[in-house]
Design a protein that fits this description.
With 309 residues, this protein is of the alpha/beta class. The chain has helices at residues 15-23, 37-45, 65-72, 112-117, 119-125, 137-145, 158-162, 212-221, 255-267, 293-308; strands spanning 6-9, 32-34, 51-58, 62-63, 80-89, 93-96, 107-110, 130-133, 151-154, 165-169, 178-186, 197-204, 227-234, 242-248, 270-278.
């Protein structure tokens, strides 16, 4: 591996490379195409790259398990933080070697998320073709170029990278699908609040008991914090052991977010803070009048006056 500034899920031609170019166009030329998401995150932890761009969530298929697990596998104090996010519209083509017709396709390779988003098209046009999962859509395209498969479901840009041609274009079952990518950095300063921010957390409760989830959610509800994402995922510690992945529409610099974290810290087994950063869509959070910083300052002042007598 070279001394690249940015790692992304490779090889060349992935949607993740597109996101990396969008994030840092000046550094994209020597970016490192990591063979997997865990490899990209590990390179960041070891200081071999400055940043890592990885897929986090898709509007059709939901979260990307490899990314969630790679972040969860790190220690609580490894310093890896999300400092930004990007949205990339997903378009798929069926790429083949020049001269291959649709009728000659017997094997199709792609990433499982890509298969899920083109399931109806493949069932209708290639019902007999074997679908083979690969680590990325670009790796599938690369394997087609090497003769390993007949076709790949991949980004249109992979055709140029691997000298393939489209046997079909715009094959996604749903138009307008978007993948959310996050930018990771180790030991980075917290991005300044913009008014349209989100905070990502992983929370482990003490034990599975009635009311445990309600108690967790109340930390946000009573402070006027909207949750744009809440997902339970296995911890890997045994059946029935789950953690909660949370995207909260607030920034750590806001008093309401700090108090929510304080409450979670007191009532949960573990809370991992993965970053406060600007939303890619720039949508401003709706803060109730009782939950803004002025309301907290007024309430704290009132309590101090009571204390003084």
């Amino acid at each position: 591996m070279t001394s690249a500034q940015i790692a992304y899920l490779g090889p060349a031609g992935t949607f993740t490379e597109q996101a990396a170019r969008q994030w840092a166009p000046d550094d994209a030329a020597d970016a490192w195409p990591a063979p997997s998401v865990p490899a990209a995150v590990e390179a960041l932890r070891e200081g071999r790259v400055r940043e890592a761009v990885v897929p986090f969530e898709n509007s059709v298929e939901g979260s990307v398990p490899a990314t969630l697990q790679a972040l969860l596998d790190g220690s609580t104090d490894d310093g890896v933080r999300i400092i930004g996010e990007l949205h990339v519209e997903v378009q798929f083509s069926l790429l083949v070697r020049p001269g291959t017709t649709l009728g000659q396709v017997r094997t199709v390779a792609s990433h499982p998320h890509a298969f899920a988003q083109t399931r109806d098209w493949l069932s209708a046009r290639l019902p007999q073709a074997q679908q083979v999962p690969e680590s990325s859509t670009a790796r599938a395209a690369q394997a087609v170029a090497e003769g390993g498969y007949d076709a790949a479901v991949a980004a249109p840009g992979a055709a140029t990278a691997y000298r393939l041609v489209p046997a079909a274009e715009h094959i996604a079952d749903r138009e307008g699908a978007v993948t959310r990518f996050v930018v990771l950095r180790r030991g980075a300063a917290l991005p300044a609040p913009t008014g349209g921010d989100r905070t990502t957390l992983v929370v482990l409760i003490w034990q599975n008991r009635p009311g445990a989830l309600l108690e967790l959610l109340e930390q946000f509800a009573t402070r006027g914090i909207d949750l744009s994402r809440l997902e339970s995922r296995p911890t890997g510690e045994g059946l029935g052991e789950y953690c909660f992945w949370i995207d909260a529409d607030a920034h750590l610099s806001e008093q309401r977010m700090r108090e929510a974290l304080t409450g979670l810290r007191r009532t949960c087994r573990e809370v991992r803070f993965l970053g406060s950063y600007p939303r890619a869509d720039g949508r401003a959070a709706e803060v109730p009048p009782h939950a803004d910083d002025d309301a907290y300052a007024e309430a704290q002042g009132w309590v101090e006056r009571l204390t003084r007598g």
